């Protein structure tokens, strides 16, 4: 290759690389609810039914997840009916990606069914003829290694069939 052609190619590569910039995300994680595979489940226990929830996340300093030896959960799913934690999940540490370490990605979360809840001290998971359904939604948030909590996202309503 002639030196002038090599110089022109190098010049254009430098110009093009200057146009591509790394994404700028805040250091506090951001979570976004993007959907579910369905909006109903049959109540029960022992993993008899499930739903997939889809999320997107970003984090400017990339400190999402914990080492494999650490047992701390960092993704929390709250049942709207009780405001109690329904699931706490440990996301593994994401690998460093370079000098900026900003990360983005998607989470596919499988949640198993839960019980219908009733008033008047009726035991959960009962089958009551005149109460065929219960409705809930999940509130979900993520905490990074620095202790920064993402915004809380909300799923669409989920209908539990109480049969």
Briefly characterize the structure.
This protein has 163 residues and is mainly β. Helices cover 10% and strands 34% of the residues.
Describe this structure in words.
It contains one helix and ten strands; from the N terminus they run αββββββββββ. The protein has 163 residues and is mainly beta. It has a single domain (24-161), classed as Immunoglobulins (Immunoglobulin-like, Sandwich), CATH 2.60.40. The strands form three sheets. The chain has a four-stranded antiparallel beta sheet with strand order 5-4-8-9, with no helix packed on it. The radius of gyration is 23 Å and the shape is elongated. The termini are far apart. Residues 6-20 have low confidence and may be disordered.
Order of helices and strands: HEEEEEEEEEE
For the sheet with most strands, the description reads:
4 strands, antiparallel
Mean pLDDT: 83
Number of H- or I-type helical stretches: 1
Which regions are unreliable across 5 or more consecutive residues at pLDDT < 50?
6-20
Broad structural category:
mainly beta
The name of the CATH superfamily reads Immunoglobulins
Helix content range of the residues, please? Answer: 10-25%
Q: Strand arrangement, largest sheet?
A: 5-4-8-9
Number of domains: 1
Radius of gyration: 23 Å
The coarse silhouette is: elongated
Q: Report the CATH topology name.
A: Immunoglobulin-like
Strand content: 25-35%
CATH class: Mainly Beta
Count of distinct strands: 10
Q: Do you know the CATH architecture?
A: Sandwich
């Amino acid at each position: 290759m002639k030196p002038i052609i090599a110089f022109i190619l190098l010049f254009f590569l430098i110009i093009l690389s200057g146009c591509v910039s790394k994404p700028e995300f805040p250091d506090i994680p951001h979570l976004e609810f993007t959907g579910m595979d369905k909006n109903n489940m049959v109540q029960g226990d022992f993993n008899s039914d499930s739903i997939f929830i889809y999320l997107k996340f970003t984090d400017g300093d990339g400190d999402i997840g914990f080492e494999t030896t650490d047992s701390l959960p960092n993704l929390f799913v709250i049942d709207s009916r009780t405001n109690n934690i329904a699931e706490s999940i440990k996301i593994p540490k994401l690998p460093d990606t370079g000098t900026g370490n900003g990360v983005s990605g998607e989470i596919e979360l499988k949640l198993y069914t839960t019980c219908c809840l009733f008033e008047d001290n009726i035991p959960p998971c009962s089958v009551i003829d005149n109460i065929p359904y219960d409705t809930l939604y999940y509130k979900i948030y993520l905490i990074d290694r620095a202790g920064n909590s993402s915004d809380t996202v909300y799923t669409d309503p989920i209908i539990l069939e109480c049969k």
